[in-house]
Amino acid sequence: MENEYDYDVLYLGSGHGTFDGAIPLAAKGFKVAIVESGLIGGTCPNRGCNAKITLDAPVPLQRQAEDLQGIVTAPVALNWSETVKHKHDVIKGLPDFIAGLLKNNEVTVLHGHGKLLNQHTVDVNGQSTTAAKIVIATGLRPHHMDIPGSELAHDSSEFMDLKELPAKIAIIGAGYISLEFATIANAFGSEVTILMHGQKALRKFHQPFVEHIIADLEKRGVHFVRNAAVSRLEKHGMGTTVHYAGNKAVHVDWVLDATGRIPNVENIGLENTGVEYDKDGVIVNDHLQTTIPNIYASGDVIKKSQPKLTPTAIFESTYLMHLLAGETSAAINYPAIPSVVFTSPRIARVGVPVEEAEKSDEYTVVKNNVLDNWYRQVTRETFGENALVFDKAHHLVGATEVSEHAEDVVNSLLPAIELKLKPEQIERIIHLFPTISSASWELL
Ligand SMILES: Cc1cc2nc3c(=O)[nH]c(=O)nc-3n(C[C@H](O)[C@H](O)[C@H](O)COP(=O)(O)OP(=O)(O)OC[C@H]3O[C@@H](n4cnc5c(N)ncnc54)[C@H](O)[C@@H]3O)c2cc1C
Ligand SMILES: NC(=O)c1ccc[n+]([C@@H]2O[C@H](COP(=O)([O-])OP(=O)(O)OC[C@H]3O[C@@H](n4cnc5c(N)ncnc54)[C@H](O)[C@@H]3O)[C@@H](O)[C@H]2O)c1
Description:
Mean pLDDT: 97
CATH architecture of the largest domain: 3-Layer(bba) Sandwich
Shape: globular
Distance between the termini: 48 Å
Bound molecules: flavin-adenine dinucleotide, nicotinamide-adenine-dinucleotide
Low-confidence stretches: none
Domain FAD/NAD(P)-binding: 7-315
Domain Pyridine nucleotide-disulphide oxidoreductase dimerisation: 337-441
Number of strands: 23
Strand content: 25-35%
CATH topology of the largest domain: FAD/NAD(P)-binding domain
CATH class of the largest domain: Alpha Beta
Binding site for NAD(+): 173-180, 260
Cofactor: FAD
Structural class: alpha/beta
Protein name: Glutathione reductase
């Protein structure tokens, strides 16, 4: 690459949108720098996926013990403060671990807030650094509601660091974070009220399955309020009053604002370069190139239709590694990207949505009650449905499931979708038995 600059490639941000690609790029001999204003590794390891799944881990155990009541003595008691400590123990080493990988591959890490001064220069703590190519990978931050008293609400990071679980929690919004954290808080004994913007939760998921999750959480004591336009928050003793739907109100100890996440596009100097962006993120072409040719974007900060998830960010940073190393000039070609909501039961999906398939002559939708499979009786699963979408040639093109094993089922079906396996190829795949994978492939 050009050598008139300090670095060949400089990344703004150190999350999965960066390090999965930056490390192999540096290993190929490119001079790489990363600017990071917070913890190395970004959201996923420190305050996202890894942190969340550790807090969630005891919940499916509790559910399984319920299902196996009599064989196992239920209820299984969950201890919040021990779980938060355990979460801290298992994630605290991740920034140093990732920093070690960066160091071993001679990636320079510049700690501080990075701001573009022009298309090749970034300011970090008053020092200018130049690079031939720049990758914007600054991620998302929590959206804060613009209503009186909104400063009384908290975000997902604060939830995951709570030393004690509040007795009553209100959650505003009904997306991923709302339903996952409601599941956790409810299992650990909190009384949870979810204030929904409209009628629907998890809009991108198959609604009958979402309604099952809602009904199950309601049975467990979670209150769902639909069309609850939240108008203001007010201090009330040690807690907070949430005013909604005109003259209604709920008094709680703690409020979680789970109304979405917005891209970090402000105050990073995009206006000094002409890189175009809007409220959904940085605008890129099919090579992840911004409107300025030597500046690229990766991960959640991109405006895109693909789900803003870690596997997407990893795929993009890996693609950019090949592109910037000159190993490809092809456009990015996203595979089928799965997504899962870690409620209990889980809801997972990939590929052509059921609603779209049902409206088209191109597809056949096959619905299954997964409890018909013998293996689900072993742990006495009480509920599970899936819907598989096939094209005219009987290739699997979509799948969604609600069950305790939904994420494993969807994971196991991915090769059939991505590689467009034909029935005779599917026959050649032998799975370990008895397992969820073998149970789910029986349905193809
Ligand atoms: C609570 C929660 C749970 C989640 N759970 C899952 C899950 O289970 N599965 C899943 O796939 N995804 C999950 N996600 C989403 C996942 O975390 C993101 O998709 C992923 O982290 C995106 O990576 P990224 O590199 O694009 O951004 P990030 O990881 O957010 O990294 C961006 C980095 O840029 C830094 N930065 C920003 N501006 C600057 C600047 N000007 N200068 C220097 N540094 C800067 C930030 O400090 C940050 O470290 C979850 C997210 C949250 C919030
Ligand atoms: N399991 C996972 O993979 C996982 C888990 C957590 C987060 N994430 C990622 O983080 C992102 C952010 O999650 P999230 O749950 O914050 O966002 P989201 O977009 O999933 O949900 C936001 C919710 O807030 C509601 N809302 C918006 N404005 C509102 C308002 N003014 N009043 C009331 N409700 C309002 C929306 O209708 C929606 O229900 C996700 O899209 C996903 O990319 C992924």
